[in-house]
Design goal:
alpha/beta, six-stranded parallel beta sheet, 3 domains, Rossmann fold, Substrate Binding Domain Of Dnak, Chain:A, Domain 2, 16 strands, 678 residues, single chain, binds FE(4)-NI(1)-S(5) cluster, binds iron/sulfur cluster
């Protein structure tokens, strides 16, 4: 009998029926975050409409779209799958349920890939311009990382200056974006295991450039092109690997330009807003803007004081907030679902945004308080907001203009006597765990072979495995409920956790990203493991280690990939054998769709806690849950109950750890090669 707990958990059934998923839809207090609850009530009392009311107003949502069986790809549509058989079982063109579901899914992955890679391209351009002297405010902040990345990419580094190398690395990144030859994308190919390279070649899913992969995906899903389940599925995997490429570029190049994160202390939740200071919120995704604003603000404290403020308080929302938290310890105001609530405090002077996950509704709330909503990117404008084109060639000057605007807005706020309401909730946070920083912590125990500290702890049963927590909020699940339930459940089961995006922000806001979280929720093994790591690093860490390790923004899921790749290489297996799982408890965006797809393609079982629009096709459901596992070694686990999700994730880890142990033992006993089956 297998040792792992309950084989019934290895099935693909979602335990929550469709009509049970959106409980109490008319109740707008749809969160467990005390700060958010206070602000939802406050907004309601003041007739400010927020996402919580809009979500409620949208219920019930269309069942065809929800199940993925609505097609609007050509303008004969929308077509819906209405029957099991006969003419109503197909679209007008004859597309079956699986074709419609998969085409929709591919377009989701294309959307996510486009967002990540455009972000990456922007950074690559700035690195190139900086190297060429056209963006003088940006420079190579981490020459060691530059050299490591260049070396990995196969660029000769000897005798070259930082500037020369930066130029070559940027050009390699841009080639990965748009080259037309048939060689694999370098940022992908040089950062995965040998086993993955073989697998991707065998499956013919190797992207040769990001742009080409996305264009091919949109083409593939045009009316009357791909209509084969396997071919469509492989198409999705190829685009998802292009997405990974873009994310890897974004992380590597951001580290080069702004520094590789190291452990840092900060705070999270709306209580970080200080009404007596000039409050600037940076919201969006790209550190090119937010890091400059943060750095420039340090120089402008005096100007703020001269205006009667106690200083400048920058706080972050969404992933740009994660970027500046990781590198500069800037506190987190809130995550995606709380963005309007931050504005509803009335204490924000400027909210400056770049791209992605910025609700158009922020403008309406900002207007209630004379808060300046400043858009900065040519592709992301919001009617009625201030648009201040961010100019990378004059980055500091652009940042100064934004901060001056905030100081003026602060003066106007104080002069108006406008009441503010800041809920007094915040928690201590330890962040800054890049892959390098994590290895540094492990090196405290074993300087020769840091990653073995983690893999040994799994092999000897001290911890069960690793989980990557990622992404988003989605009111199908009450705000932050699934994130926190899963974190606490995994902690109890001794799972080592790393987190990114809005999942990391959930952990941060709820006191799960500090050592008190360890005391309260960690199982004995995890506690002992973290204590041992801390003991070995006592004199260089700012505090005891947290329950959940913050790895950064969503593009920084590539850091987690670096971790499982290192673990696989250390264990002498490919990724599908590594006791590592992923979860997106409250997935929402197209980016979550593309990330989830590449995480599975890397060989990681990945739970998604809000239903993907795939239920309309049994075939696609089984592809995601079962066939993906047979082919890629990873699979999607669609489960709406976060407590059951914990059991399923634990079962996946348990199974992998058990199997790895059995195979290792057999290999030793018979002096044979380690079995590579998964
Ligand atoms: Ni990721 Fe980060 Fe948040 Fe989701 Fe949006 S901010 S890029 S997409 S909502 S985690
Ligand atoms: Fe309908 Fe086919 Fe057009 Fe989709 S592509 S809208 S299924 S006719």
């Amino acid at each position: 009998m297998p040792r792992f707990r309950d084989t019934s958990l290895q099935n693909s059934k979602n335990t929550v029926a469709r009509k049970e998923r959106k409980k109490d839809p008319k109740n707008i207090r749809r969160t467990i975050d005390p700060a958010a609850l206070e602000m939802i009530d406050h907004a309601k009392e003041n007739n400010i409409i927020t996402v919580f009311e809009r979500w409620s107003a949208q219920q019930p949502q269309c069942a065809f779209g929800y199940q993925g069986i609505c097609c609007r790809i050509c303008i004969q549509g929308p077509c819906r799958i209405k029957a099991e058989e006969g003419p109503g079982s197909m679209g007008i063109c004859g597309a079956r349920d699986y074709v419609i579901v998969e085409r929709n899914l591919i377009r989701t992955v294309c959307g996510g890939t486009s967002a990540h890679s455009d972000h990456a391209r922007h950074i690559a351009h700035v690195l190139l311009h900086a190297a060429e002297g056209h963006a003088p405010d940006y420079k190579v902040a981490d020459p060691d990382k530059l050299r490591r990345v260049a070396q990995r990419l196969g660029i000769t580094i000897n005798g070259k200056s930082d500037t020369e190398l930066a130029k070559e690395v940027a050009e390699t990144a841009l080639a990965d974006m748009g080259k037309q030859d048939d060689t694999p994308c370098k940022f992908l190919w040089t950062s995965i295991t040998e086993g993955r390279r073989t697998k991707y070649s065998d499956c013919d899913i190797v992207p040769t450039s990001v742009d080409r992969a996305v264009v091919e995906g949109i083409h593939r899903t045009h009316i009357g092109v791909d209509a084969d389940c396997t071919s469509l599925a492989c198409g999705a995997l190829k685009i998802a690997l292009a997405d990974y490429t873009g994310m890897k570029i974004a992380t590597d190049l951001s580290d080069i330009l702004f520094g590789t994160p190291k452990p840092v202390m900060s705070e999270a939740n709306l209580g970080v807003i200080d009404p007596e200071k000039v409050n600037i919120i940076v919201h969006g995704h790209n550190p090119l803007l937010s890091q400059m604003v943060v750095d420039t603000a340090k120089e402008m404290e005096e100007a703020a004081k001269a205006a009667g403020a106690k200083g400048i308080q920058i706080s972050g929302i969404c992933c740009t907030g994660n970027e500046v938290l990781m590198r500069s310890g800037v506190p987190i105001a809130t995550s995606f679902m709380g963005q309007e609530l931050a504005l509803a405090t009335g204490a924000i002077d400027v909210m400056v945004v770049d791209v992605q996950c910025i609700m158009p509704a922020t403008r309406n709330v900002a207007e209630c308080f004379n808060t300046k909503l400043v858009t900065t990117m040519p592709i992301a404008k919001i009617t009625g907001s201030h648009h201040l084109a961010f100019d990378e060639s004059r980055a500091i000057e652009s940042s100064k203009t934004i901060i001056e605007l905030a100081i003026e807005a602060f003066k106007a706020r104080k002069a108006s006597g406008r009441p503010v309401k800041v809920p007094q909730y915040k928690n201590k946070v330890m962040a800054g765990f890049s892959f390098e920083a994590l290895m540094d912590v492990f090196a405290g125990v074993n300087p020769e072979n840091p990653v073995s500290v983690l893999t040994d702890a799994i092999l000897n049963g001290e911890i069960l495995g690793v989980c990557l927590l990622c992404g988003c909020n989605n009111l199908e699940s009450p705000y932050d409920h699934a994130h926190t339930t899963i974190i606490k459940g995994l902690a109890e089961n001794n799972v080592f956790m790393v987190a990114t995006g809005c999942s990391a922000q959930a952990a941060a806001k709820h006191g799960l990203m500090n050592s008190e979280g360890v005391e309260k929720y960690a199982g004995a093994g995890l506690k002992a493991f973290l204590a041992r790591l801390y003991e070995a690093n006592k004199n260089k860490l700012p505090d005891k280690l947290p329950l959940v390790f913050h790895m950064g923004s969503c593009v920084d899921n590539s850091r987690a990939a670096e971790l499982w790749t290192a673990m696989a290489n250390e264990l002498g297996v490919d990724v599908p054998k590594v006791p590592f799982v992923g979860t997106a408890p409250e997935a929402m965006s197209e980016k979550a769709g593309s990330i989830g797809t590449w995480v599975v393609t890397h060989g990681i079982p990945t739970h998604v806690g809000c239903m993907l629009p795939v239920e309309g096709s049994h075939l696609v459901w089984s592809v995601l849950h079962c066939i993906a596992h047979d082919v890629a070694g990873g699979n999607i686990i669609l489960e709406n109950d976060p407590e059951v999700a914990v059991e399923k994730l634990v079962a996946s880890l348990d199974y992998r750890a058990w199997k790895l142990g059995v195979h290792k033992k057999a290999a030793e006993q018979y002096e044979a090669a380690l079995c590579q089956m998964y």
